[in-house]
Amino acid sequence: MGKSFAVTGEYFDPTMVNRQRLLWAIATRRQLERWEPLVAAAVRGQMGGSVTDDADIWLTETEHHFALVAARNLFRALDLPPPASISIDATLRAELIEGRDLLEHWRENQPVFNVSPRRAQPPYPSGKSFAARNPKRGPYSWLSWNLKSGALLLPNVPASALHRLLDQVQADVLEKDESFRAFVPPRAPSPWLEQDGEWWPRPEGG
């Protein structure tokens, strides 16, 4: 066991730690850039009195799921020593990890969280902690949006808050190793307009 830990430590040297952190920050950003336009289109449609296409609902669900998978891997990278020089909101971290677990184990948890009022208790720690924080809300809403927070990955995780964390991770990595800048792709345009503290979907084509 000691030898295994030694090999792991040798492999995850500072360069590899920075690589993994930036890799998963970029992967998480890419998933947000795939998921958020679908949410914005659904909100635009609702405002115009139309209904989201069934196939788009399923597409939004899968993109949402993989955004949480990528975010969970980002936290695994951030947990590698040495600590990153960034501050992470405790609720954001906890809920993203819980959300990933609950989506991964949907068979056990959808019958608990997708029934209202909730009639059963989550069987595992991630579900219990999520339910304690969100007694009336669940993790399986992939088209969530509100005016004050914008697109919501989870009840307490606005996409904008996760973007800010990704900005911090990227800046921290590049400060330590500028050579990684070549791997950073351009940001996609935001599908949102933030005006006076309110989040609105951009007009189509805007």
Q: Major β-sheet, in short?
A: 3 strands, antiparallel
Please state the average pLDDT score. 94
Total helices: the number is 7
Query: Percentage of helical residues?
Result: 55-70%
Structural category is mainly alpha
Characterize the structure shown:
The protein has 206 residues and is mainly alpha-helical. It has one domain. 58% of the residues lie in helices and 8% in strands. The protein has helices spanning 2-11, 14-47, 54-78, 90-104, 106-113, 125-133, 159-176; strands at 145-146, 150-154, 157-158, 192-195, 198-201. The strands form 2 sheets. The chain has a 3-stranded antiparallel β-sheet with strand order 1-2-3. It has a two-stranded antiparallel sheet with strand order 4-5. A hairpin with a 2-residue loop joins strand 2 and strand 3 (157-158). Helix 2 (14-47) runs antiparallel to helix 3, helix 2 (14-47) runs antiparallel to helix 7 and helix 4 (90-104) crosses helix 5. The termini are far apart.
Q: Keyphrases for this structure?
A:
206 residues, mainly alpha, 3-stranded antiparallel β-sheet, two-stranded antiparallel sheet, 7 helices, 5 strands, 58% helix, 8% strand, globular
